[in-house]
Amino acid sequence: xxxRKPVAxxxxxPSPLLTGKLILASIFFVFLIxxxxxxxxxxxxxxxxxxxxxxxxxxSVNNTLEASIATxxxxxxxxxxxxxxxxxxxxxxxxxxxxxxxxxxxxxxSNAEIVFVPAGEFLMGSxxxxxxxxxxxxxxxxxxxxxxxxxxxxxxxxxxFNACVAAQACKYSASMATNPHYQDxxxxxxxxxxxSWSAAQTFCQWTGGRLPTEAEWEKAxxxxxxxRFPWGDDLARIKFTNAxxxxxxxxxxxxxxxxxSYYGALDMGGNVxxxxxxxxxxxxxTYSPAINPLGPESGEKKVLKGASxxxxxxxxxxxxxxxxxxxxxxxxxxxxxxxx
Length: 340
Description:
Elements: E1 7-8, E2 11-12, H1 16-39, H2 48-69, E3 105-106, E4 113-117, E5 120-124, H3 135-138, E6 142-146, E7 149-152, H4 158-166, H5 197-206, H6 214-222, E8 273-279, E9 302-305, E10 322-324, E11 333-334, E12 338-339
């Protein structure tokens, strides 16, 4: 007589030896997974703001490379001399109903977004304790009172300035050889450059405003308490703005959200230098009025504020002062407008 092994549901039971091996293997596998889990570092939480900034920088660099190998376009017909056209006249703009939280506001002519800077005092210039300051031009640090105003959220772009040229209110004097990016679609949202002081002022007047005074520009940058940079007191780097020649060209307007100023303006620490209304006097802070200063009555050069993409990082400070002949446009000079 032959003995048969017990079966379950028609299948033979595994031997005790095989069952023990399977149990030991399962226990080893569980311990192996636990050990790996303890050794594997937890994934860091991604910094979405930094990722967005890096994405914009990469887009700008790619655009620059594409533009450098693009087929050259024909030299455009020179602009006709600007004709006398009615400027957009505005009454003083009211303060937003709920500040600082209010819906976006746009200039109806340029379609540029503008942000509000309330009336009040702020600290202008550099303190003796500020590193990298220029004691000749930036001291003494002093309290200044300004009336309320609105200011362009970003630097004026090629598209915005082109609209003024099309309306025959502005003239762009640089040739395609000098600035091939002016009418290049890849650079439509980059800040316009190669504009003189008077061309910048003409654009602002066309939209119902004017160039900011140096004091207005600096307050919009640093807020009431004299912070060193638009974003605060952290040292300037590519996270905050386009400077230090790291990108090698302009970037689209508003591409650095971490560099937002106290009142919501962008690119006030870099990208291009900006014309302001004031004549330049290196000693102006020693005698400037404490209420709505307008700068010296005359001079040979106009003040420029902010750093360009080519400038060292120390130029990104809010109190930094530069100057240039008003009739001289350049590759790193742009502007924004204010609306009282």
